[in-house]
Amino acid sequence: MGEFELIRRYFQPLAENHGSEAVVLGVGDDCAVQRIPEGRDLVFSIDTMVEGIHFPQEYCPDYLGWRALAAATSDLAAMGAAPVCFTLALTLPEANEQWLTGFARGLSSASESFGLVLAGGDTTRGPLVLSMQVHGTVRRGEALRRSGARAGDLVLVSGTLGDAGAALDFLEEPRPSDDMAFVLGRYHQPRPRLDLGASMVGLASSCIDISDGLIADLGHVLKASGVGATVDVSKLPLSAALCSIKGIEAARYGLSSGDDYELCLTIPPERWKVAPEALKQQLTIIGAVEQNPGLRLRGGPDAVGNNAAGFDHFGGGS
Ligand SMILES: Nc1ncnc2c1ncn2[C@@H]1O[C@H](COP(=O)(O)OP(=O)(O)O)[C@@H](O)[C@H]1O
Ligand SMILES: Cc1ncc(C[n+]2csc(CCOP(=O)(O)OP(=O)(O)O)c2C)c(N)n1
Ligand SMILES: [Mg+2]
């Protein structure tokens, strides 16, 4: 199977998944063409996944297709953007039909589920690496940024934290318990918070998605905003499954493990008061923004230090 046959067989169908009026020209030409509606800004981001770093060696291709698009799409959610389309740069060691079928299946269900149509890509041979560029749009000037947090704002997170990080211990488990199966599901099939992000436009003062762990990602927000915060560790939303698996260590996972793709937002208290009940139910208040720079943790068990760091590809060395 040649390169063009591979594209036609496995990826062309995704380009036809669900027509988007915004994609004027998709797969097949030198570039795709996207039309930006009047009064909206284009929001775009690229993320790479490397075998052995972002996903295990010999990882299930269905999960890989889903996870790679979910991780990239989570950045759109963090900006409050509505999803439009994505491009895929795929480097493969070989054209294995079974692998490609699974990968295209996982990618296709993610693309339908998130409402992103495949608009183009690039296919090369080499070690397994994939990059996805996602495109969305947001009302002009209203994208949620990392830099808008102000002293007095509340710090909120969506969903539960630490599940996907805990799953790394069980990736090889032949007969996972129900609790293990729950955290594994959170690692294999993260769900970017697109609806929540879009609903927070005009409400949140800042937003980031948690790919590297709460401490690291909230740290980016505080730095970009020139403020600090105190987080009450006893308020962290932790799943029953995580608590039962990790016991006293659960909070440490909630603070510093990545891969959950939940949102961390800040919001002025007067806006929170009038926020729709349906939004409030998806979010947990974990702390408050302060003038004093840096992130302070309180209310945690002794197992939690204050020095947990997020994932840094070039950190830890010289
Ligand atoms: N090689 C690069 N060239 C230019 N900008 C980059 C590069 N790598 C990362 N960035 C930028 O640095 C910022 C932080 O990147 P990253 O930590 O990957 O964010 P995220 O967690 O949202 O994917 C982003 O604005 C991203 O566009
Ligand atoms: C097999 C495996 N080991 C470890 C991890 C943990 N991990 C690897 S990279 C990463 C952080 C996210 O990656 P990065 O490239 O920093 O993504 P971005 O910040 O651009 O979203 C995490 C938590 C994982 N996801 N899978
Ligand atoms: Mg990135």
Automatic annotation (TrEMBL):
Q: Which domain of life is it from?
A: Bacteria
EC number(s) recorded for this UniProt protein: 2.7.4.16
Provide the binding site for Mg(2+) 4: 30, 45, 75
Q: Where does Mg(2+) 3 bind?
A: 30, 75, 209
Which pathway, per its entry? Cofactor biosynthesis; thiamine diphosphate biosynthesis; thiamine diphosphate from thiamine phosphate: step 1/1
Instruction: Summarize the protein's role.
Output: Catalyzes the ATP-dependent phosphorylation of thiamine-monophosphate (TMP) to form thiamine-pyrophosphate (TPP), the active form of vitamin B1.
Q: Which family does it belong to?
A: Belongs to the thiamine-monophosphate kinase family.
- Protein name (Swiss-Prot/TrEMBL): Thiamine-monophosphate kinase
